[in-house]
Every structure is written in structure tokens, then in C-alpha cells.
Amino acid sequence: MLYDASRLDHPTAEVFDPAAWRSSGTVEQTQGGRGTVTFIGDRERRWVLRHYRRGGLFAGLLGDRYLWTGEDRSRSFGEWRLLARLADWGLPVPRPVAAGYSKAGPYYRADLITEELPTRRTLAMALASAPLEDECWRSIGRCIARFHARGVQHADLNAHNVLLGDPGEVFLLDFDRGRIRERGAWERAVLARLRRSLEKVTAALPSDRFGEPQWLLLLAACGSD
């Protein structure tokens, strides 16, 4: 287990068990991306617990199991360390609280706890309810630009892991498999992935929710063409 000692005092594996939180706090479970997301808390803490699950072709075969290749290469440890670094840089991400794994044979399962952000409103949710102001698209672009300026590559930037808070406030979630690298062509690939996601979530919505004008506002603020 990895954990932030300023937020947890010698935790046990129970910290990753939603049932253990029900006796002393609150538990609200939802589906998020490829994993189960549980909002947990008590009088002093508001955290998010994510249990890692596979996506794609291996989802039905392996579910929440990953091939063991060493502790330092576990998904939860990798994301915890990356989030800690990004938070220290002042980037708008949830600060990590704890990461753990349980190993059985050649496989392991993993969990991550982060602090809950001040909003749960995803970009996909916002677009489903109303068009976004031009300045909101610019704010999203400026947020992405901050990460790219630091060489932070998001492995799956999409409309579900961009959170919108107060005006001008944007957060990014889900840095599983993310990394820090030299700037380059990968930035365009990250943006292209986001665009495909936006086109997918708005396909059945009115045309004013997303199109070329909105995309160009985001790109201009991101410093991309």
C-alpha cells in the first residue's frame, strides 16, 4: 500500500472496502469509466474510491485482474505517484490519498483513493443539459495546455473525465497509464481522442452542443492547430 500519512494513519486493507465505510460514514457507488467509483466519507473526509477494471477485449475475460509484473508497475501505484507529482505542481487533479493491490497467483487487483473534487459535473453531463459558453470551451483548452506544458500525457482524455466547476474551473481525472514525457506529436493524439469522445456523446444532441466552432475555441486556447 502507498498512502499519504497526513491523511491516513497506518491504514489497513479495510480502507479500500466500501462495506467498512458504511458503519462509520457514507457510501455512494456509481459506475465511472472502466472501474467502479465509490464516494466515501465521514465527518472529516470526502474521498473517492476506484476499483480498477479492464476495458476492451480483455474485460470479459479478466474483469478486474491484471497480470503481475512487479509492485512498481501496478496500475494503482503508478497512478498514485503520477497524481502526487501533478498535485505538487499545482495542476487541477484530485490529490491521491492511498493506493493498494492484492495479489493472487499471476494476477492482482487494484484500488485507488483520491480526494473528492469540488464538482462531479463532467463535460459529458454538461453538454447533455445545455450548450456551453464560449469561455467554457476556452477554459477547457487552457486546462489541457497546462498539462501539455509539463509533458503530461493523458492516456484516455474524454468527455467523462473532464470536470467543470465554477466558471473557469476545469479538472482532469483518470490518469491510469498516464505518463510524463517530452512534448511532441502525442499531444495531437490526446486531443484527437477527446474530439472523438465529444462527437460520440453529442451525436444525438442538438447541433449547438458541439461542432467545429466549439472545437476551434478549445484548440486556440490550448495553443494547438
Written account of the structure:
- A hairpin with a 2-residue loop joins strand 6 (96-104) and strand 7 (107-115).
- This protein is globular.
- The longest helix has 16 residues, at 134-149.
- The chain has two domains: 2-115, Phosphorylase Kinase, domain 1; 123-222, Orthogonal Bundle (Transferase(Phosphotransferase), domain 1), CATH 1.10.510.10.
- The protein is built from seven helices and eleven strands.
- Strands 1, 2, 3, 4, 5, 6 and 7 form a seven-stranded antiparallel beta sheet that branches.
- It is of the alpha+beta class and 225 residues long.
- The termini are far apart.
- Helix 5 (134-149) runs parallel beside helix 7.
- The mean pLDDT is 93.
Question: What characteristics describe this protein?
Answer:
225 residues, Phosphorylase Kinase, domain 1, Transferase(Phosphotransferase), domain 1, globular
